[in-house]
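Build the 3D complex.
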Amino acid sequence: MSSLLELKNIKEYFPVMNARIFQKVVGYIRAVDDVSFSLNEGRTFGLVGESGCGKSTIAKVILQLEKPTAGAIYFRGKALTGFKRGEMADYHASVQAVFQDPTSSLNPRMRVADIVAEPLVINNSQNNSRSDITDMVAQTLMQVGISPDRSKCFPHEFSGGQRQRIALARALIVGPGVIILDESVSALDVSIQAQIMNLLRDLQEELNVAYLFIAHDLATVKYMSHRLGVMYLGKLLEHGPAGKIIEERIHPYTKALFSAAMPSHPDLIKEEVVLTGEVPSAFDLPEGCRFHPRCDRAMKICSEVEPDLKDVAENYQVACHLYP
Amino acid sequence: MIKSNSPMGFIFKIFRPGRYPVIPITIICIFILLAVLGQAIAPYSANQIDLRERFTPPFFMEGGSMRHLLGTDAMGRDILSRIIVGTRVSFIVAILSLTLGGVVGTALGIISGFYGGTIDSILMRTADATLAFPIILLAMLLAIIIGPSLQNVVISLGIVLWARYARVVRGEVLSLKERDFVALARIAGASGIRIMWKHLFPNIRSTLLVLLTLQVGWVIIVEASLSFIGAGIPGPTPVWGSMIAKGRDYVTTAWWIPFFPGMAVAIVCLSFNMFGDWLREALDPRMRQVGGGG
Amino acid sequence: MGDNMSELLNVKNLKTYFFTKYGTVKAVDGVSFKVDKGETFGIVGESGCGKSITALSIMRLVPDPPGRIVGGEIVLEGEDILKISDNEMRKVRGKKISMILQDPMTSLNPVFTIGIQLEEAIKIHQGLKGRSLRERAIELLEMVQISSAAVRYKNWPHQLSGGMRQRVIGAISVSSEPRLLIADEPTTALDATIQVQFLRLLRELQEKTGVGLVFITHDFGIIARMCQRAAVMYAGRIVETGSVRDLFDNPSHPYTAALMRSLPKLEEKVERLASIEGQPPPLNDDIQGCRFAERCTVAEHQCRLSYPDETEISDGHFVSCWKF
Ligand SMILES: Nc1ncnc2c1ncn2[C@@H]1O[C@H](COP(=O)(O)OP(=O)(O)OP(=O)(O)O)[C@@H](O)[C@H]1O
Ligand SMILES: Nc1ncnc2c1ncn2[C@@H]1O[C@H](COP(=O)(O)OP(=O)(O)OP(=O)(O)O)[C@@H](O)[C@H]1O
Ligand SMILES: [Mg+2]
Ligand SMILES: [Mg+2]
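Done.
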């Protein structure tokens, strides 16, 4: 399978200044530390991990909202750094995003039609006429289940779920290859969440788009994803086919994370692995494996050498000294 | 539900019956009317000197007459007429300086907040310096250099106003810029200009309107103070500030000479402030919607 | 159902309305439930259905104006707390009922150390002073598993992680040894692994002190994990109450049943989630009939005419639906 978008050894370090008048860099927050994975056509890559582990930062790097400190992004096999202007505009049109808070995602002073049309208006490479654009907006709104009659309304006249649909329509209108879904369903109510997730899956089937699905709720990630990455403090610790990871949970952190998920039935309550110790900060990472201070199976080597991602099965990698 | 974002909805919102501040709006309207009509409805020419009628007290006092409702000054000029004609000057100064300061300040505030970094530091330090500089001194310096005039007053006021606008607008932009729709505009490939014009500016419009209203009163007071100290608009144009200044000598003998122009300043000021306060609440998006669903 | 001896809280037909310029918002409209001593009772529902307002009504802390409790009874240990004076209520609030809020970041005062805030809470109710006050504070911190409590005691809130802050808030709320503890989404802002830590802690506190717990959440998983009985709320009303097992094995209200089918599950494979079309009605609409009728697949004429009474379909399992 050809990969559409590939991240190779992406690092994103944020400098930390001291609080003096003449500011000096005193260290770095290693928000993303050497992460590689790829997004494939018509597939969903799920990214899970706790707050602050760098999920959104990866999204921002892909969306060109942050420049990576190191590493490279390949789009259709070509490095982004070598892109010319036209290619870059093409990239902007091909990689779209839907964020968590639909209220903050839509400009309250713009009409829905203008919001949805904006990416098209900016990247008008086919020189669509006004009426073409109007038609496309109506068509896309229909696709996400919003009546085009309401395209002259303002965002606050819609409910949260509808607003998220409008945000999705805006992402879809340019016919993107990749959509970054950063906690896109997390803020929605259960009944609405199911609506949106089903819509996303249908659209993927129809349009063959790739999703990067970021969420902290494991059940939704499971429902959406084909492949999965488990992140901890800026690093991928486990990376493979979603079903396999959920079944096997090789890395001790993955085990703890999944056992912390709430049961879907009172009969399914299991003794959870309670992690001891506090979460270290991305500013002050421990030596060796970054999970070892909270790991119940930590060995001597864990505090000395940082483990690399190693294959444990086909297309399945884990970064832990316990596994080859 | 009324669409509060559409122009009609906006007008609806401001003038929904029964909820707007009737008295301040009425007063503002009356003064606007006076400013527009000016000499046309004044009972006398503002500069008509009639030494026989000097120091006529207002009509309700002994010796006053219905010919000069608010009395006359030391040269026998009708005070009511002078106040009416003076309204126009005050409003012109307010409109010009607010436009000047508002446009420059808003533009620089948006740029400062949006780009941040060095531009932001330079602009904001300049704004701070401007705000720290006494406006009276500034106007006096300008008066010495280019002579006292209406332009002089407008420029001095504009210089102070831009800084006030820039500060407020920048603060607003800093928080707006963190909203996801700005990130999404960037993702769609929007240029800085487009983001500032299409996404940031429309969202600070209502703040600007409130700020504008709240500043009218301040501008009129400062304009009056400048005229009072002689750094403002030179005579014989009737100006509220210089009327107060000239009347100062007669406070004990003919108190009405400084009192009525003073009242005009106070009433206009208060009305605009009350209207602005109400506007701030009326436009607050938090008041927009209640209830679940949509 | 417990007899009167074991009954801690009995809420009868509680109505809390907001009188706004846009009309009356019936945030809580005839809610009834009972909580036994030492029991954990869950209230689950979508955003805006009135869970928090129910909790605030029990505390008598509904913002007034625009809100007001317009009817019903709240019987706490045999006494209707809607009838007592504000002064007496203040004593009840500290001593008998306590509350944990959602946001651990804003629930602590940033300008006092956690020790001072904890001591303040103890002082009000227990009249301890000096050494013994401090010892009690440290003891409470240890009880909520803050390691090296004697040092942490001197920390400012910003020096603690979100999970630790929430534990400190937990310590403060049980410091007065309340009879009833209301937890309004106390873990929504926490990470999964921190959430399990906190939930376990709450259960241990409950075992130690025998406090009755009202647990408000929108997450059915937490209901399954934490509660013995629960109520499902929809648009200001409780539609179904029963033991957690009743709700999960035999969800009888069409809304509950549909919600159960729209939940993604980690433990089993779900081919496609069922979703409930539409969205909850605005609470300021005057709806005569069942509020769910608009979205209900089995609604009949009757459902739109009047609101169904509560029916006990099996022991302790109540449903408000015309089907029964
Ligand atoms: N602009 C920035 N400057 C400095 N630090 C940053 C910046 N953006 C993010 N960080 C830090 O980078 C780390 C990763 O942040 P990120 O937002 O990617 O986390 P996340 O996994 O998306 O978390 P969440 O689940 O809470 O959204 C955090 O420690 C955060 O504080
Ligand atoms: N001050 C207020 N004025 C008017 N309406 C209000 C006010 N506070 C709350 N409401 C309304 O009361 C209803 C119930 O609100 P409540 O906070 O109880 O919801 P909730 O179930 O706790 O939701 P969430 O899960 O989002 O916390 C909402 O529809 C809300 O709009
Ligand atoms: Mg994030
Ligand atoms: Mg709530």
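The first helix of chain A runs from residue 55 to 62.
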